[in-house]
Amino acid sequence: MAVSVCLAGLRRSFAIQLPALDSSGNVGYDTGVAGGATPVTHHFPAEQRPVSIKSPRRASQLNLFGPSPETMTVTQVTRYVKSLLDGDYVLRDLWIEGQVSNFKVTSAGHAYFTLKDDQASLRCVMWRSDVERQALLPQDGQSVLAHGRISVYEVGGVYQLYVDHFQPAGMGRLYLEFEALKRRLAQEGLFDAARKRPLPPFPRRLGVVTSPTAAALRDILNVLARRYPLAQVVLSPTTVQGDQSPPQIVAAIQALNDYTDVDVIIVARGGGSLEELWAFNDERVARAIVASRVPVVSGVGHEVDFTIADFAADVRAPTPSVAAELVAPDRVELQAAARGQWLRLAGALQRRLVERRQSLDYLAQTLQRSSPLSRVQNLRQQVDELSQAGGLHLGHLLALRRAQFNGLTGRLATLSPFATLERGYAIVRHSDTGRVVTSVQQVAPGEPLAIRVRDGEFDATAGETRSEKEAARR
Q1: Interacting residues of 189 by C-beta distance below 8 A, sequence separation 6+
Q2: DSSP SS3 for 279
Q3: Kind and range of the H or E element at 74?
Q4: pLDDT tens digits along 72-128
């Protein structure tokens, strides 16, 4: 497999002697412990700081005789405040450091807790989908960095932090710089999926940007020699670690674009710590990758490592070897596919389509016949009919019971002695015993009596008694 070297600023290629492979087919290289740093505090750029808001003018005194002032409901005010917080640039993307208290996960899987410091506290919510993505959940009293957005819980009328990610506090400055640059370049559209370009299926020339002594280059060449030896590899050498690496990486990418006709470019480096991979988190490198006229595959670090170059590239590969596999087709697969399959493809595809269409029609008919929808609709109609019939029956029963009740009430009123009193009659009782007097023989002259009339009762004393005939003659 031919390998040439592209030097920035020169319009010709030079052959180089690569380090010899050892007995295992590899060269040695230094490795670092993969790691990273995370932000401790969040510093807002001046253009992102919240602007001051002028105080509204003081409301005038309510005029009892004039037109009513404009008013807002509690819901309108709460939603207005929520819209202000949701639209604030800073509050939509926050890292907040604080101490966790009252952390609990509900039966639904959502987490509720409070972040606090010496002077204030903030209510927080993490939904189940975000809780499930966390490697470890914090404990009460633990200091963490929580990422999320500020919004308003309308029902309670409180503002709270909706958290989507946790990190232990105090993980360093580099991660903060990484996140800030990532966010800014994403807002410019450098990472948009619409900008990503597809890789050529059969590249003729492959550009590689890496160190000529790096094991990453040997890995790439080994994979290409095994999978796709037809491709020509053009190496654009650069250092891949240190302060001088970013401009060299940029120059190497530009040289492949300006002085060669490569079909795709691999930007590669082996694994390492965040500091060792920092050259690929440089803004200049990201912009050079985006400006490349041909697709760029990023193969930096190991699978757990992510750099700004990964987001800017058209395709991100977890390792240099995988990057080579992504850009080069497998010759074994190509040979197998070339052995007459294309001659049978049209007929086989047509037969397959007919079979699938028939199978789909049969399944659709079976599903329609077996669908419980029609039965559910019939049962729903039966429920409606039974409900209406029950309502009518209950109405008739209530009307019947009401008529019976009214009849009994009328009869009771007719038989009641109090109804008799309404017609001018009275009830006479002995004052001492309370017994009702029904005959003149039950009283003696001078005996105290209690007489009940329509609207009350009064006392009386019995006088001379007379028989019914004597009373009739009077």
Answers
A1: 195
A2: helix
A3: helix 74-87
A4: 899 999 999 999 998 888 899 999 989 898 999 999 999 999 999 889 999 999 999
